[in-house]
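Bit of a strange request maybe. I'm writing a small parser for structure token strings and I need a real example to test against, not something I typed by hand. Could someone generate the tokens for this chain?
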Amino acid sequence: LFYDQKYQYCIDTQTGRTVWKVRRDIEYNPTMSQLGPLFFATATDEARTGKGLFASSILKGNINSGSIQYISTPTYSREFVSKNSAWVGDVTNVVPVIRDVDTLLIIPHTEMGPEAKFTVNRCFLSLYNLSQHKWMYERAELSRAELGGTTSIMPIVISNRIYVTVLPSVHCFDLMTGKRIWDTLLEQRLTGFSDLIMADNKLLANSLL
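Reply from user aminoacidic:
Good idea to test on real output. This should exercise your parser:
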């Protein structure tokens, strides 16, 4: 799957054949995730956030047909949105997991915040139960208030723990409650990570600097 400005494509990786090509009338984030026949994406739709304002909503698509439908929009605070800015917030990644009989969507999102050490943005973690069509929790504080932060690479999930980076820090949360288990600051300067993996029970993060 990939998105190119106005069109979304599904390509057969074995043959290079275009399975489907669909025109999208709203702006999509090119990062998508998949679970079985479903794919998940985020897109900015002024009809849902207000004219002239931009914030990501979550969508579910069928990988066989290309059909797509709206799921939900995270709760964004507009407390720090500048009068001169149209940006409200972003969902960078959607991580689908199955627990028992339910499909859950892990939703980290970034929004405008107060001035902090690294950035004027802040970020939160939410969990949406797709099977039950409801939020399990919203706006668990992801970035530390004194540091600020922006979500970037795809979180990883092992057992019932979520591991996610926020600029130069790594955080661990309980999947089902959103409770912070630990976090650590790996750099004292403004940077981020291009990848995060678990190997031999160790987290390995690749710094951009």
